[in-house]
Amino acid sequence: MCAKATMEEFEALLSESLEIDTPNEGSVVRGKVIAIEAGQAIIDVGYKMEGRVDLKEFANPGEAPSIAVGDEVEVYLDRVENARGEAVISREKARREEAWDRLEKAYASEERVEGAIFGRVKGGFTVDLGGAVAFLPGSQVDVRPVRDAGPLMGLKQPFQILKMDRRRGNIVVSRRAILEESRAEQRAEVIGNLSEGQVVDGVVKNITEYGAFVDLGGVDGLLHVTDMAWRRVNHPSEILSIGETVKVQVVKINKDTHRISLGMKQLQNDPWDSVESKFPIGSVHKGRVTNITDYGAFVELEAGVEGLVHVSEMSWTKKNVHPGKIVSTSQEVDVMVLEIDTAKRRVSLGLKQCMRNPWEVFAETHPVGTVIEGEVKNITEFGLFVGLDNDIDGMVHLSDLSWEQRGEDAIQNYRKGDMVKAAVTEVDIEKERISLSIKALDADTFSDAVDGVKRGSVITVTVTAIEDGGIEVEYNGMKSFIRRSDLARDRADQRPERFQVGDHVDVRVVNVDSKTRKLGVSIKAREIAEEKEAVEQYGSSDSGASLGDILGAALKGNKE
Fold this sequence. Notes:
about 550 residues; alpha+beta; 5-stranded antiparallel beta sheet; 9 helices; 30 strands; elongated; RNA-binding
């Protein structure tokens, strides 16, 4: 009974001793290198256990392994014993566990960690953080896109942990955050030593369409294209090249955003200071077209001084034409200074003012009455436009097309491209109008026919036709029509058939219309006028004499 108790106590003590002395699988233990053979290190981890680890597990990325017999190292115990009776251990897993503990503390305190980029993967790179592998996104490598990451591979450098998940084994780091932080410190220091108006030397680092970035010794400043020269610069590459050292002036410093604006033209004399004396209003100068827009063209008078020729000042005759069809870029032209605004740095120029007004020239060479010949350029509802010298047009109004036809009918006889002759009737230089007349080339038969004839005149006409509604008569070649009601004073005599073709009849003129070219005549009006005149001369309404007596006396008086 006593012996049995002693045996149980011994087994209990042995079991307790094994639990205390033997490490748990999945833990990190310290061991000693007792031999190196066949590319492996044999490590005694105590507890009468030995294991093997590949030498490569003792090497950092891109480096040779550094391990020797007698070195003490920490390894990860996967299993206490394998099929060969050896412990299954790993230096890499031990480093990983150690690294994760260290990295978690650094992540919590937002401290930097050291690592080396050792591989490229989709979307970025892999980084060894002393045993733990992290992912470095391509966007987090540098402050600017990196085309060649070769120089960065295997180089130990600091990183910032952005995100980590131990359960999933994910770590995301950034090199850019470190660079931006150090860059911000450097920028703050450099900016603190700069002041607006200061002149410094810089190196052109990058060129864009809108300007160039200049390195001022750790901080970049923007040299905008408009601050490179007083003259127009189409692209910064016209003046600068990458790597070139330039002298610039600090124009503005934004302390909040650390942005620096630079200028080169500020180191040169402002040509606008002498614009008014060099280019007085009304003077003519030769310039070069630098830019063409929809509203005009910019002309450089000298380096740094440009003026605008508005589209309305480009040509006397081409009104609705794009400026690009009148001038071309780099063309040399003569311009006149029309207006100067030094405050707004604007000069208004005129191109057409350097040429004579074609309407003035026309008025001098073609006085009223001159006969011209030109091509019908356009036909509108109110007349014809005829092309003249120096790209100007004259207009023939509907009323000036023909003496005989209505304007609406006469215009049908013309087509675009026809050559016509016309007489100049008016030149209005201010309104830029030239009036022409085609009918003025022919005699006005109506005016000639009715010359001296006035309303109330008595003329003799010849009957040319008899109709139911009246008779047609002719006077000096002009036709008129007397209606039935105007053939006589008495209704009984208002009969067209009492006249014959060829009869000569005295009529009274009741209307002379030059516009409609019509002569209105009436027999009835003549008879009434004669009767009135007889009454006034030979009797009155209260004299007791009859109308027959009065007319008889008038006839007798006429015979005597």
